[in-house]
Amino acid sequence: MKLKIAQIQMSVTTEREDNVTRACGQIREAARQGAQIAVLPEMFCCPYENSAFRPYGEPLGGPVQQALAQVAREEKIYVVGGSLPELEGDQVYNTCFVYDPEGKCIARHRKMHLFDINVAGGQRFMESDTFSPGCDVTTFDTPWGTMGLCICFDFRFEELSRLMTLRGARVIFVPAAFNMTTGPAHWELLFRQRAVDNQLFTVGTSPARDVNASYVAWGHSIVCDPWGTVVTHCDETEQTVMTELDLDRVDSIRAQLPILSARREDVYSMIEK
Questions:
Q1: Which one of 45, 75, 96, 111 is the catalytic residue?
Q2: pTM exceeding the 0.85 threshold for the entire prediction
């Protein structure tokens, strides 16, 4: 079974409406090129900085979500909507919404692990100054099987990827914005390792790099197959890249190397609370 995906590694400006218009335009172009799922980057509609998250935020059903639902419905494509600041009462969440080809929201993932780092000689950033953490393991069903979803820093926690795998995930989509410290060190390493650990495809979609931004993204959107092979790897520039996933490789590799079936659940196990 084949699945064609489009990763939209777009530049993000301070103009929300422009960001959304360009994102929807790229989704339309991807659909015309045969993409069945289009993926946007983390915080595709606003600058990645704490001072921007609340002002750029919107409640459930807000205008950015409506725009993504509309383009999904009109182009008959699944849209993994990167992430945006979601407002609920006094709380702000870093949230990804997924829409099916009818424009229905079929998944919502609120970033569970907040990016609070202070790397000596590197970058300091504290998402928890603004965001509240989500609490849900997120998967969604498609004609190509179950898909997993998490956001950026979530992907560093191997337990979350394994829980999505145990739910049946064949692909894990990760809207993300690694920075110029963590990106060179860990971006490719993490996507290859999670793919090998769980014997599935991993898809990381980043914003393009803007060296003048307060937060400089690494870029380098990536796709890894269940053997850990990098099948798509962008540079740092703005682009939309198409990749065809051969999902039969998931079953083939799991049969050849029985990592999941050989787990010793009599000794250890992993459960959701």
A1: 111
A2: yes
